[in-house]
Amino acid sequence: MRIVTTLLLAALLSASCGPRTARTQESAAAASARQSASAERYTYVVRNVYPHLTTSYTQGLQFADGELWEGTGEYGRSVLQRLDLATGRADVKVRLPRTEFGEGITLLGDRIYQLTWTSNTVHVYDRRSFEKVADFRYTGEGWGLTTDGTKLYMSDGTSTIRVVDPATFRRERDIPVTYEGQAVELLNELEWIDGRIWANVYTTDQIAVIDPATGVVEGVVDLTGLLPDADRTPRTDVLNGIAYDEATGRIFVTGKRWNKLFEIEIVKQ
Ligand SMILES: [Ca+2]
C-alpha cells in the first residue's frame, strides 16, 4: 500500500514538477499541447472552522436543503446522521447492522442512499421517516456516492465511477477516471459541484476534479496541511468527505475521525 500511495501522489503531483529527463527532447509545440492538457492546480483558503466528532469515521458527506448529512463507517459504529454545523453535534437517524461497514451517502428527492463497503448492498431510506424503502444489490465494493439531481455517481475503490439509475440502482455507464492519461485509482468520497465530480483520492490530501463526460481530471485541489498537526492523534485518519451548499456556494471538507470540519475556498496555484 505504501508504494501504491507514493506512486499515486507522484502521479497527481507531477504536473508541477518541472521538466523531466524524458521530456527534454520534446518540441515546443508538443510541450505547449501538454501544458494545455494539464490539470489546473488549486490550493485553498480556510473560510470557517467547525467542530467534528472524532468518533465519526466519515465516509459520506452532503449538504442538502440547508442541512448537513454524514454517513460513517466501521463495524458496529456505522450510522446515518444529521450534523449541526455550528456545534458538530450529530442526530443519529439510522444505525447499520453490526455486520455492515457504512460508506458513501447521497440525498435525492425524498430518498437517502447509503452504501456499504463489502456487503454489496445500498440501503434506501425515506428522507422524512428514515424507514427503509428498498435495498438494492451491486457487484464490487461500495465507496463514495453523489448525485447531479438526476443520476447517482458511485465510486468503488477503483479508477471507475459508475453512473447509476436512482430508481433501480442499475449501472448505466462507467466513467474511467484519468489524470494525464493515467488511471486514478482509489477514488473515494464524491461530490457533484457545478457540473464536475469532486473525488477524494484515498490516502492522499488531494481532491480530483473530474469531467463526468470524459473522466479526465481537470483539476487537483491540494489540501495538504488543512488539519494542523496539533489537532492530530494516533487515531486521526485520512481526509475524506466533501459537501457543497449549492445555495451559498460553500464547500465543506473533513476527514475520518477529524476534530474539525472546514469551509474552504479554492485558489489557483
Ligand atoms: Ca459528498
Mean pLDDT: 90
| Bound ligands, named by name, code or SMILES | calcium ion
Instruction: Kindly report how far apart the N and C termini lie.
Output: 29 Å
What's the overall geometry? globular
Quick overview:
The protein is built from two helices and 22 strands.
Topology, please?
Layout: H1 2-13, H2 28-37, E1 40-51, E2 58-64, E3 67-72, E4 79-83, E5 90-95, E6 102-108, E7 111-116, E8 121-126, E9 132-137, E10 145-147, E11 152-155, E12 160-164, E13 171-176, E14 178-179, E15 182-183, E16 187-193, E17 196-201, E18 206-210, E19 217-222, E20 239-245, E21 250-255, E22 260-268
Parallel strand pairs: 1-19
Antiparallel strand pairs: 1-22, 2-3, 3-4, 4-5, 6-7, 7-8, 8-9, 10-11, 11-12, 12-13, 14-15, 16-17, 17-18, 18-19, 20-21, 21-22
Supply database-style keywords:
single chain, 269 residues, Methylamine Dehydrogenase, Chain H, 8-stranded mixed sheet, 4-stranded antiparallel sheet, 2 helices, disordered N terminus
Descriptive overview:
With 269 residues, this protein is mainly beta. The chain has a single domain, classed as YVTN repeat-like/Quinoprotein amine dehydrogenase (Methylamine Dehydrogenase, Chain H), CATH 2.130.10. Helix content is 8%, strand content 48%. It has 2 helices and 22 strands. The strands form 5 sheets. An 8-stranded mixed sheet has the order 16-17-18-19-1-22-21-20, with no helix packed on it. Strands 2-3-4-5 form a 4-stranded antiparallel sheet, with no helix packed on it. Strands 6-7-8-9 form a 4-stranded antiparallel sheet, with no helix packed on it. Strand 20 and strand 21 form a beta hairpin. 37% of the residues are buried. The N terminus is likely disordered.
